[in-house]
Amino acid sequence: MSTLTLSPAWQALAHHYPTLASRHLRDLFADDPDRFKRFSLQAGPLFLDYSKNRITEETLTLLLALARQADLPGAIEHLFAGEKVNVTEHRAALHMALRNPGPDPMAADGRDVMPEVRRVLAHMRRFSEAVRRGAWQGYTGLPMTDVVHIGIGGSDLGPAMVTRALDADCDSVRVHFVSNVDGADLGRTLQRLRPEQTLFIIASKTFTTQETLLNAHSARDWFLAQARDTAHVARHFVAVSTNADAVSRFGIDPENMFEFWDWVGGRYSLWSAIGLPIALAVGMERFEALLAGAHALDLHFRHSPLERNMPVLLGLIGIWYVNFFGAQTHALLPYDQGLVHFVSHIQQVAMESNGKGVTRRGEPVDYATCPVIWGGPGTNGQHAYFQLLHQGTPFVPADFLAPITSRMPLGDHHRVLLSNFLAQPEALLQGKTTAEARAELLQTGLQGSALEQLLPHKCFPGNRPSSTLMFQQLDPHTLGALIALYEHRTFVQSVIWDINAFDQWGVELGKALARNLLPELSGQPPQHPHDASTAGLIRHVTERLQSPEGSS
Ligand code: G6Q
Q1: What is the pTM of this model?
Q2: At CA 55, angle to CA 47 and CA 333, rounded to 5?
Q3: pLDDT tens-digit profile of 263-295?
Q4: Which strand (E) or helix (H) includes residue 330?
Q5: What is the largest CA-CA distance in the chain?
Q6: Positive or negative, the Cα torsion across 127, 131, 134, 138?
Q7: Rounded to an integer, what distance in angstroms lies between the CA atom of residue 243 and that of residue 324?
Q8: What is the Cα–Cα distance from 369 to 347, expressed in whole angstroms?
Q9: Domain spans of the chain?
Q10: Are 472 and 478 a contacting pair, CB within 8 Å?
């Protein structure tokens, strides 16, 4: 067994677990009328009710002891001090510097990064304002009407999610996102656009990612098919990258490159110039409000005591479920249509950061790490997978999120949305006992064997835990705080699990595999032998690629 699972704090939680496993949330609430007050917390614009979790004061005390045993306060300080916490790539993870508004320096590896951060922010401001007010003109002298952001993974999910979330504020150019190498993604997007009024952002930290570069080249071909002269590319293509050489090899004017740095991880990069499409869509003031919201959470995370620290509490409650209750998934259920892509972004933040099976020193873990993060907007999910949440066999802790007021009010819609949002976690907590279900069925006039047969299907075990996050409105400031909350929650868990949250060798593997296999689809011999299944599939594809009728 590992030193973590043998450690006193872990063992204390393991001993404590059976007392909680056998208690129903109904009883925990009945025993403590102050439970809501005791287990709720405000951080910046976010209000968290964590009372519907299967915890007591003692559970929290033990979880906090686990955090102290892992020296979580020290780890937070190392993170903010710009130390090389990404030990396999020898890099800092200092995305908090991107949203640090004050005059204070922030150093990555001993060097103050704030002057560069401010320089790029100023560049973003000049550029986005010029495009938004029509002063940035295309090769025919017309202003831009559409922006196509080409990137994938961390260079896509964050800005796409935020732009969608803030669409009530989109008041200038239309912004589109293309990520998939499936030509249908780019093809469908370009169908509706006019080259002379379209601006492309090529967003790639490395500027080597196959999908992004292929999409970028195809976009350039589409543009040049009309514009004819490569000199016009400069007015229509800008890049966001850390790789200036590759950007200029692509033909983008270095003047039109927005830089970021190796201490910004892809999935933490929406705060950098990767967020340029956000600034173009909603304006630089709102982009800065987004940064300010995240900064508020940074301050809260860095300076609040562990027991009143929202990312810490959420992270530890998650650990409690994964490592002691055996939860393998965690549901995110935002009741806000603007957050339709929120789950995908947080899924990447959590699962790419903590989907690891070895410790920072490379030893295999003997405990579970990141659960599968999934979910989607309510109320839609209620008509689909909520069935499993209420009566299924897996244990699925959930986070419910909602704004108190809508940014796009329409009649009584928001009150109906909120009534659903409040009713679901209550039902998950309470369940429905056999006696309650029987009484309900009797009231409908059912009796005898018909009632007895239906009865077990109408019972709900309840005792299914959830956390509830509320905020006044999904404005840029609040959204920034919300994203930062989940970033820091992810970091907290990585510290407890002793894993490096900032590398992604599994994703890198995918990039290399496709590069190696590609020539085989043009009939070249394999670079290494394949298993029989893969070899058979490659044959199946190449035979049919060569003969479109599908005869082999
Ligand atoms: C993020 C990941 C990954 C990355 C993409 C795109 O943390 O590393 O999702 O963002 O693979 O990489 P580039 O930005 O280098 O094109």
Answers
A1: 0.96
A2: 45
A3: 999 999 999 999 999 999 999 999 999 999 999
A4: strand 329-334
A5: 84
A6: positive
A7: 44
A8: 14
A9: 3-69+304-430+465-503, 97-288, 508-551
A10: yes
Same CATH topology for 3-69+304-430+465-503 and 97-288: the answer is yes
pLDDT at position 551:
43
Predicted confidence (pLDDT) per residue in 94-134, tens digit: 999 999 998 889 999 889 999 999 999 999 999 999 999 99
Q: Is 201 helix (H, G, I), strand (E, B) or coil?
A: strand
348 CA distance to ligand 1 middle (Å): 10
Q: Give 552's pLDDT tier (boundaries 50, 70, 90).
A: very low
Gap from CA of 474 to ligand 1 centroid (Å): 27
Architecture of domain 3-69+304-430+465-503: 3-Layer(aba) Sandwich (3.40)
What tokens were used for 423?
């009713």
> Which homologous superfamily is 97-288 in?
Glucose-6-phosphate isomerase like protein; domain 1 (3.40.50.10490)
* Residue ID of nearest Cα to ligand 1 atom 10: 154
What pLDDT is stored for residue 550 in this prediction? 43
Q: Using CA atoms, how far apart are residues 486 and 212, in angstroms rounded to an integer?
A: 27
Dist. CA 209 → ligand 1 center (Å): 8
Nearest ligand 1 atom to alpha carbon 212 = 16
